[in-house]
Specification:
2 helices; mainly alpha
């Protein structure tokens, strides 16, 4: 009977421990922020590359 009581106490302590859940929540938030940053950099990078290409193409014309 003592073994069962120890197992029951251990399982109850695991149920009341919320540190693991908090770590998972922070991990999800960090991954969502990373995805948002990657998407923003990808979109802005493409637009920025196009802008620089347009400027580069017009530079020889402006010099003459």
């Amino acid at each position: 009977m003592k073994f069962y009581t120890k197992i029951a106490a251990f399982t109850n302590s695991l149920r009341s421990d919320e540190e693991g859940a908090t770590a998972v929540e922070y991990g999800l938030m960090v991954s969502l922020v990373a995805v948002a940053i990657i998407a923003a950099v990808t979109l802005l990078g493409t637009d920025l590359a196009n802008t620089f290409k347009t400027i580069t193409d017009k530079l020889p014309t402006a010099a003459s």
